[in-house]
Amino acid sequence: MLSFDPSYFLAVFPQIAAALPFTFYVVAAAAAMSLLAGAAVAAVRIARVPVLYALCEVWLSFVRSMPFVLLLFLMYFTVPAFLRAAGLDTSRLPKEVYVFAAVVFGFAPVIGEVIRPAYLSVDRGQHDAARAFGFSDFDRIFRIIVPQMIPVAAPPLMNQVIEIVKDTSLMYLIGLMDLMGRANLLIHVNMGRGKLENYAAVALLYWVLVAVLEAAAQYLSRRSSGGFPGGAS
Fold first, then answer.
1. 144 in any annotated domain
2. Tens-of-pLDDT digits for all 233 residues of the chain?
3. I want to staple 109 with a disulfide (CB 3.0 to 4.6 A). Which of 49, 60, 73, 228 is the partner?
4. What is the CATH number of the domain that holds 184?
């Protein structure tokens, strides 16, 4: 029968929390890359680029049907094969590269479907007014359109980041020492002792991490909504 030892929990908690910086690094890097790739997908779909538009539709359909663990293993085994076929040495390739590849492949088309309606929600008159005042395309997008997209896009984008946080907890399966990896290592070193305490520590850390992300999303949405006509004050 499992029992919970508070003193053992307090002893292992800081050891598991030591993996938090690496976990945060992987999540932040993967989320940033997915956001950039998702913006590119959204641009293709907004412009309805021939062939690429259809490919993005198939891509989105495929990743929506795949569990992340399967994408992770697919990238873990296929990325090195493609790189070796291109004549590249993969012996020193960091394992987190496979996590980045899996996250970007799995989340870019979904994030594109968050960005696209947020872009289309901005009144076309805003685009016309920016052009009339001589704004360049870059200034029109990043000074006029993007700030108005943020209140619409921020909550669903943060939901996707939270999904990335949860899905990347599987990276221990390819040998990375994130929070779950550190907990499993401690359980192994202690010959199976303290499973409940270790996993409770991981659960608490993920809870705090996600709560911080949700608070940041709410703050960003409130600030952005208050900065435009018709936004919340």
1. yes
2. 568 889 999 999 999 999 999 999 999 999 999 999 999 999 999 999 999 999 999 999 999 999 999 999 999 999 999 988 988 888 889 999 999 999 999 999 999 999 999 998 888 888 888 888 888 888 888 888 888 888 888 889 999 999 999 999 999 999 999 999 999 999 999 888 889 999 999 999 999 999 988 888 777 767 766 654 444 43
3. 60
4. 1.10.3720.10
pTM of the model: 0.87
Residue 192's region, left for phi above 0, alpha for psi from -120 to 50, else beta, is left
What is the separation of C-alpha 105 from the centre of its chain, rounded to a whole number of angstroms?
Answer: 11
- Total tally of structural domains belonging to the chain: 1
1 within domain boundaries: no
Distance CA 57, CA 126 (A): 28
- C-alpha 205/C-alpha 200 separation (Å) is 9
Identify whether 232 is part of a domain: no
Please report whether residue 230 resides in a domain. no
